[in-house]
Every structure is written in C-alpha cells, then in structure tokens.
Design a protein that fits this description.
By secondary structure, the protein is α+β, with helices and mostly antiparallel strands. The chain has 2 domains: 7-135, 2-Layer Sandwich (Ribosomal Protein S5, domain 2); 138-204, Alpha-Beta Plaits. It contains 5 helices and 11 strands. It has a 5-stranded antiparallel beta sheet with strand order 2-3-6-4-5, with helices on both faces. A hairpin with a 3-residue loop joins strand 9 (164-170) and strand 10. The longest helix has 19 residues, at 112-130.
Length: 205
C-alpha cells in the first residue's frame, strides 16, 4: 500500500505584510523553501534587512505526507508568543516547503503574550494570503521498452492512470521514460503486466 500523497501545495513566490499594534511594527515575509538551508537563507536575509529590529521570529514547514518537519523560533519573545502562531498560520493554509519570518520593532508599549501571539499570527497569515501558490505533483519515474504494436495499449493504460511520458526513443523498439502519481503506479504496473501477459513490467529509472 502506498501512503505517499500525489501532490502538495507550496508558495510560488514571496510576499510581505506589515501591521502596527500599539506602535509596535510587525513585518512579515512568506517565501517558498525546498529545504532547511533555503529557509535559513530567507531568515538571514530578513534579519539583515531589519537588522535594527528588536526580534526576528520565524517558523517553517518542510516536506510532505509523514515526512513533514516543523520548526518555530520565538527569538527572545515570551515562549509560544511568536513562533507558535506563525507556524499555526502556515498550518491553516495546508502549505508546506515554506517559511515565514516576522521582524518586530518595539513601540514602547508592552502587548502581553496574548497580544503578541495575535499580532504575529495575523501578520504571518496576511503575508501567506498575499503569496501565489502552486501545486507540486509527486510520483515515480520508470522506463518501459516495448515493441511497436504495444504502443497504443501502453499509451491507453498510462492515460487511464494519470501518467505521462517524459521522454521517448524510437529505434528497433520503443523506449519511454514515464511518470506516474504515487497512488497510481503500483496499479498501473499490475494492469500493464496483465494486459501484456507478463511481457512488460515497470523498471525504475
């Protein structure tokens, strides 16, 4: 049984937002991040841009399915008042492979833990809502080599299982590099084997 998802949603670019609460400024940036080094690069860039701010807090959500890794950091704010609401804002979107960084300039009035949490969560959610999104398909790549008379059969089965041809070579035989979603490749392999009386099986690319 295959429990991996067929896709995940992430950001298709960066977006920024700013709010003011009792003279404190909260400036957020939401950005795609395929891995931890990329996320840290975004964090470092925001920290450099707002180097004179009091706090630079962040959260990220990387991976998909059962492999999701979440990190949050309060950066000196009261525990749970910054990183946690930022991460909660990311979770509510269902997005992964993204990071949100929030710089805060203190305005001279203490907001309390609840006030801080609301402000950090709001500005993070606003930045996320303004960013474009994209869906990333997930699956596996295989090689198939077969004789010409089988081409129509293979093409029909591939289409029926949401697969696609990535590359194709036509010599004495046909060779296709194909991609199939995680939920479909195992069933496609079984149907292909049955339809060709065992002559064709999937080979990992």
């Amino acid at each position: 049984m295959n429990d991996l998802p067929d896709s995940y949603e992430t950001l298709d670019g960066s977006a920024a937002a700013e709010i003011k609460v009792k003279r404190s400024r909260f400036l957020a940036e939401a950005a795609p991040a395929a891995d931890e080094p990329t996320a840290r690069t975004v964090i470092d860039a925001v920290a450099h841009r707002y180097h004179d701010s009091r706090h630079v807090c962040y959260a990220w959500r990387l991976g998909y399915g059962d492999s999701i890794v979440e990190i949050r950091n309060d950066a000196g704010e009261p525990s749970g008042s910054a990183g946690k609401p930022i991460l909660a804002a990311i979770r509510r979107t269902g997005l992964s492979n993204c990071v949100v960084v929030v710089a805060r300039y203190f305005g001279g009035v203490k907001l309390g833990t609840g006030g801080l949490a609301r402000a950090y969560g709001e500005v993070a959610a606003t930045a996320l809502s303004q960013a474009a999104r994209r869906t990333v398909p997930l699956g596996r790549t295989f090689l198939l080599t077969f004789d010409y008379p089988r081409q129509k059969t293979v093409a029909k089965l591939l289409a029926a299982h949401q697969g696609r041809i990535l590359d194709e070579t036509y010599l004495t035989e046909v060779t296709w590099q194909i991609w199939l979603p995680h939920s479909q490749w195992h069933r496609f392999g079984a149907v292909l084997c049955e339809a060709t009386a065992g002559a064709l099986t999937l080979t990992d690319k």
